[in-house]
Structure of Retbindin:
Amino acid sequence: MGVTSRSLLLVCACFAAALISEARSGGVCLQDGKHKATPSPEPHLRECSLYADNSCCTEDDIEDISHVASAINKNEPWDKCGPLSPMCEGFLKRVSCFYRCSPDAARWPHPHRRSYIQAVPLCHSFCRDWFDACRMDLTCARNWARDPRGQNCTGTCVQYQQVGCDLAHD
């Protein structure tokens, strides 16, 4: 083996060891002050039960996902334009649970905004199904990708299929 082959082998071994170590530790949480410092079990998660065994959130962190009025959400759910269809609401909850509770979300941190994630790979089928589930529901957000809860609503409510979703600039 030449020097280059040994170096490559050493780099690969170190990379494999790091991956194995991360898998054993259960991941990390986004370090933005809104997530737990490290993931741990949260057996009482109701809305985001997928992450109950290893979570970056607590039940209190996700009160607004289940539309419980609290100091966190100030009673501002994502359905400001009326109730969402159950399928659309299910997709929004699923995405919110991933961002807030999944130790895997920290794999795609935004380089300049600590509380954001960026470039999370999604299957085309997931995006298509999400759009199909929400296309007829109403929103007042002008850009669903940047403002899914309509925090910056202007104008009237429109169907999601009429709203821009420019993910390339997030």
User: Anything to note?
Assistant: Confidence is low (pLDDT under 50) at residues 3-25, 68-75, 166-170.
